[in-house]
Amino acid sequence: MRLLNFDRFYQLTFFPSWFPVNCYLVEDGEALTLIDCGLPMSTRGIMQAADQIGRPITRIVLTHAHSDHIGALDALKQALKDAAVMLSERDARLLAGKTALDPDEPQTPIRGGIPKAIQTVPDRLLQGGDKIGVLQVISCPGHTPGHIALFDQRSGALFAGDTFQTRSGIAVSGQIRPFFPFPALATWSKATACTSARKLIKLNPHYLAVGHGNVLEHPEQAMTRALAKAEQKMGMNTHA
User: Fold this and answer.
1) How many Cα atoms occupy the beta-carbon half-sphere of 148 within 13 Å?
2) Per-residue pLDDT for 236 more than 90?
3) Per-residue b or e along 61-84, where b marks 16 or more CB atoms closer than 10 Å to that residue's CB
4) Which of 109, 162, 190, 229 has a CB 3.0–4.6 Å from the CB of 174, allowing a cystine?
């Protein structure tokens, strides 16, 4: 595991050299908020990182309910019984293994690692605009129907989950990077992901922190270029 320290947040990366899976610990007062839970084997590393930082984890927030973002959830909840687990109301259904779509959603199958037999029941269901301590919840469906991002206005850090990837070059969810195609292959709706990417760009983040790849500083131009490439490839015009 690799642990990097940024402005009031830490990036934890499992398998950084070949299949990077990121979690984040965000300082909020004397406590930490964990964003995403990585893989089943990530539990020990997450707990060790919190011990090294010297603050307790009091919240666990999931950007979405794919298996590489919720893998350690049950074990962490067992170890951190008082930590509140949160994710979007929409992706709570996916966490429970339910893949049915709503009538007003794009009728393409939900892809990626669908959770199986997760025991943890969320303590709080989130909507866009909610606040979690210092973090603002941003609804950004596309990779999954209930995907969210978290924005820390103190540092300008945007925790974007899989709405973007930076591994093998920055890309909007659904756009294949040949040397790391996995987030694209797990994307539910490419068009919806583009719309959400544009929403995130408007936040003008100072940091872009994603599920797979390095943190980018001053990422707005790179995000904008990635969106333009995605729109061009799909023949979209989200400026309209």
Assistant:
1) 28
2) no
3) bbbbbbbbbbbbbbbbbeebeebe
4) 190
Q: Look up residue 147 and give its two tokens.
A: 């995907």
Query: ∠ CA(172), CA(102), CA(171), 5° rounding?
Result: 5
Rg, C-alpha atoms of the chain: 16
235 or 104, greater pLDDT: 104
The DSSP H or E segment spanning 52 is: helix 43-53
Q: Tokens representing 94?
A: 């996916």
Q: What does the chain come to in residues?
A: 240
CATH numeric code, 2-234: 3.60.15.10
Q: Reply yes or no on whether the pLDDT at 67 is more than 80.
A: yes
Return all residues near 224 (Cβ < 8 A) that are at least 6 apart: 201
Distance CA 220, CA 227 (A): 11
Which residues fall within 8 angstroms of residue 235, CB to CB, at 6 or more apart? none
pLDDT tens-digit readout, 14-65: 999 999 999 999 999 999 999 999 999 999 999 999 999 999 999 999 999 9
Q: Which residue has the tokens 């979405």?
A: 64
Residue bearing tokens 């037999």:
117
Phi, psi of 114 (to 5 degrees): -80, 130
Do 188 and 111 meet the contact criterion of CB atoms below 8 Å apart? yes
Q: Which residues contact 104 (CB under 8 A, 6 or more apart)?
A: none
Banded model confidence at residue 238, pLDDT cuts 50, 70, 90: very low
Residue whose tokens read 């924005």: 151
